Amino acid sequence: MKGTGQALSHGAISILNAFPTGKGGALGVDLWTRAKATLREGPGQISGLISSDPQESNNLIVTVVKKTLEHYGYERKLHGEVITSSNIPTAVGLKSSSAAANAAALATISALGEEQDDEALVQIGIEASIESGVSLTGAYDDSFASYHGGAVLTDNDRRKAEKILKVPRDIRILILVPPRKTRTGQLDRTRFAPIRRISELAYSEAGNGHLWDAITLNGLAVSSILGEDPRPALSAIEAGALGAGLSGKGPAVTAIVDENSLKPVRQVFEKFDGQIIEANPNFTKALIET
């Protein structure tokens, strides 16, 4: 065991929210979370700190480290801490939990000096997300896109990637982040039953290569259920965005733009309350740094 490990995983945005049907989709973005794990011999506590947002609960990252130790046969044999830092706003729909879980799991195996088993680490993150109450389903779509990069359609209930989607590399992603948070644990999946058919259509559109239409369709439908304002997304489309909609359970709204629509879409986003983040699609797998 080498004792310390550091790893990085990226954020993602929704293509399709999995609440209505159990099938979801996500696209990796180049926002990031970095985790550093320090482990010592002997039984004891695992402590955790989110250094970029110390008020946030450390429950998820601590649970990830414990589950990783358990998986590799180190339960009750080690103690230590995990510290994360991130530029992903938390609880706004930008997959901060998936990125934190993936980074923490990778940092832990690096500290242990164990082999990297991608699927096992994604599953550990999902289990920890459900157990710590940050996710209702474990969000396989978000976890997969955060860990592997690129865009994916998944069956979240069966935890299976169904299709890897092609994404043009020259798009940009503008994200409007209103100054409030939405906790996934507060949501009831049955509320999404009325948009089940729309969700199936969005899944089909995405599978046929019409990703941006899927983002728009999904975003408008989910906004209607959650009572989120559809105007930022509609204004972005009017200003030339390829697609726009709520990400996750919001309140963040994402707009897919090219070099021609970047400026006009940014200008319409500036009319709404919130921070604007400019990101690129991410195609890089989560990685161990040390």
Write a structural description.
The protein has 290 residues and is α+β, with helices and mostly antiparallel strands. It has 2 domains: 4-165 and 283-288, 2-Layer Sandwich (Ribosomal Protein S5, domain 2), CATH 3.30.230.10; 172-279, GHMP kinase, C-terminal domain (Alpha-Beta Plaits). 33% of the residues lie in helices and 27% in strands. It is built from 8 helices and 11 strands. The strands form 2 sheets. Strands 1, 2, 3, 4, 5, 6 and 11 form a 7-stranded mixed β-sheet that branches. A 4-stranded antiparallel β-sheet has the order 8-9-7-10. Helix 2 packs across helix 3. The longest helix is centred in the middle third of the chain and has 17 residues, at 96-112. The mean pLDDT is 96.
Layout of SSEs?
Elements: E1 4-16, E2 23-41, E3 46-50, H1 59-71, E4 78-86, H2 96-112, H3 118-131, H4 140-148, E5 151-155, E6 160-165, E7 172-177, H5 196-207, H6 211-226, H7 231-238, E8 243-246, E9 253-257, H8 262-269, E10 275-279, E11 287-288
Order of helices and strands: EEEHEHHHEEEHHHEEHEE
The domain tally reads 2
Q: What oligomeric state is this?
A: single chain
CA-CA gap between termini: 13 Å
Mean pLDDT: 96
The top-level CATH class of the largest domain is Alpha Beta
**Regions with pLDDT < 50 over 5+ consecutive residues?**
none
DSSP E strands, number: 11
Which percent range fits the helix content? Answer: 25-40%
The second-level CATH architecture of the largest domain is 2-Layer Sandwich
Output the structural class: alpha+beta
- Report the β-strand fraction as a percent range: 25-35%
Gyration radius (Cα, Å) is: 18 Å
Number of helices: 8
> How would you sum up the global shape?
globular
Using the coordinates shown, work out and report the CATH topology of the largest domain: Ribosomal Protein S5, domain 2
